[in-house]
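re: ur question from the group chat, yeah i did fold both. here u go
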Amino acid sequence: MSQEQPIRNVQEISSTADSKETKKGIADFVHNNVVANQTDPIGVQGVKEIQSSEALGSRVEQRGEITIGEALEATALTAGHRPVDYSDAAAIQAAEVRATGRTNIVPGGVAAAAQSAATRNARLPRDEDKTKLGDILSDASSKLPSDKPVTRRDAEGVIGAELRNDPNLCTRPGGVAASVAAAARLNQTNSNQNKPN
């Protein structure tokens, strides 16, 4: 059971179009609108509609659409401290499949590393010894053989994969699904603003 959360304005972000700053902007956007507003107990948590993304939307307008690899790198900034589990690995695999257009995962790629880390982490008792999301996703764009802008369908697939593989059937605030959904929402907002009337 989830309840509607208050929507807060996104902080003003400088208008430079550097990729690293864009990832930081996505991470801040996800943190401010998904993680910081999270008050529900553990359970099914939907990714809510964000209505005020003008500041980040105008930044995306200058450099193009946000790619799946950039959304994964934003996850490294928002939830990089968290150990990789099976639901994270499934969401990363779904994102990689959508980015590459292949039906199988790339050996040595992001999804393979996440699956390996999730299996290893399940066997380790201490969180300090576990592989973190930041370790896997820090250079996701360069590890993907091909990349594409995030669409709503991509976000739905990643959210579904994370939900199916979580024991509590919920997505995590600031996690892979939340970052991909935020990127898809920003891309959709950007494309709607650029359409001629």
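okk and heres the other one u asked abt
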Amino acid sequence: MSCSPMDIDNDLRLAEKLKYVREMPQEQLLQLVNQEIPSEKLPSVYLEQLDDADRSTAYRACMLAWIVTERTQVPRELQLRAFLATFHGHDSLISAGTGSGKTLVIILSLLLDNPAEHSLSITISPLKRLQATQAEDMNKRYQIPTVAINEDTPRNDEFWN
């Protein structure tokens, strides 16, 4: 029997698919990852070095990324390392070039924690265009409620309520 959230119902909303992955038992999660994600896309050597709890969390993050990117992307080792550090409450600093995947680390933490319930993340970006792009991606692609705040942000009460 298939346990893929993609196979349950083609009309299943993204939020429901993500909830399904967040809550599924570890054994079922591993089966889903093996079924859905091509092995060459996973950082398998790194994943095998993790303890069971971190491996399960990393696989869950991989599956969430796979779903929200419409089966095109899973986190690379660097992204999983930074994500797990954040997941365990440690500070994490990634210094890398544009387009290297730093934003995915933030997204994974929010997706795993279910942004619809209680997460708040503040990301500081010096470029308005990057702010706008990230806010648009978060809202549309990942369905994470996001707003870019800068000098162009409305100051009226209607916007903030």
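fwiw on the second one: Residues 15 and 143 are 8 Å apart (CA to CA). Residues 52-68 form the longest helix (17 residues). idk if thats what u expected
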